[in-house]
Structures are given as structure tokens and as C-alpha cells.
Amino acid sequence: MSPIEFWFDFSSGYAFLAAQRIEALAAELGRTVLWRPYMLGTAFSVTGARGLSSTPLKRDYAQRDWARIARHQGLTFRPPANHPRVALAATRAFYWIEARRPDLAAAFAQRVFALYFTDRLDTASPEAVSRLVPEFGLEPEALLAGIAEPALKEKVRKIGEDAVARGIFGSPFFLVDEEPFWGWDRMEMMAEWVRTGGW
For the whole model, what pTM was predicted? Predict the structure, then answer.
């Protein structure tokens, strides 16, 4: 069976919450997860939307909602004061790792989320991101060189553009058997869709 595609921006609070559940949910459904970070700004440039954190009223509500959900689920949630950061370095690092050690990519993404949302990682800084990779048996210098390569930069840009062309415009966003589900609060509906074969 096809994997659940999990599209997200590392700076998305709701994506952080989804990342805590997606692997267990997929296992319940007999599926795997294809982790797909992308730059949400790519979608915003097409849709004309703005992120929750830069939209008055919505920003205040979202911050309260994230904290409320995190308390309910027993999660530590402390985004940095200058949230959201543009997580381009972390996104490029993910795809560099995936190309070399695909078995490590999901764990790396989970680690990025955990550190960013406890205010311990600047996802915009290549140097800060590179300091994570020894945990995964990789060399910081190799990652820094790799994410600076034009081919890797182009790959990440194209992944984002291709996602938007497929109708992906938010974070988190899920595709399962080509059926789209937008948002953390659609995860259970997605699961029911898979279990029943849709409606």
C-alpha cells in the first residue's frame, strides 16, 4: 500500500503536533510515512495567504491553541521568541540526509521539531543544524558542504514547487491514496478514510 505523505514546514506549530502522532497512526493503518518538509512560503506565494504567526488575531489564537494542545498531550512546547524562523537550512539538511541515509531521515525530522519547539535550535542556521548530525553518525562538515551545493538547493526548490502544483498548500498536509487532508485536526478523518475505503 502507498505511504501516507506528510508535508510540513518545520516552523509550523500544527505540524509539530502532527509529527508526534503520524508514525503511530500510520502503523495502525498498516502504512508507512513519507516525510516531506517544504517551504510553506512557496505555497503562500501562489495562494496569497499569510502564515498564522504573521496574521493579527489568528496569531494570538494559534499560539494559545498550540499551547493548549501541547498541555493536553503532555508535550513540551516552547517556540523561539522570533518564531517563525525560515527553516530552509533544516529542510535542505533533511533531503541531504535522505539521499544518503533514508533510514535516518524521519528521525532527523523529529529531532529538528523537538529542538525547534523547545527553543534550542535555529532551523535557519546551517551551522546550528549541522551540529545535530553527529547524533546520526554523520559529519557536520559534509552536511554543510552538501546543503550548499546548487543541485541540492535546486532539488529542494523544485520539491516545494511540485508540491504546490499537486495542490498542497498548508502545513501539515497529508496525501493518502491521492486523497488530500489539510491540518492536524484532519488526522482522524484521514485514518477513518483509509479504514473504510473512503466515502
Answer: 0.95
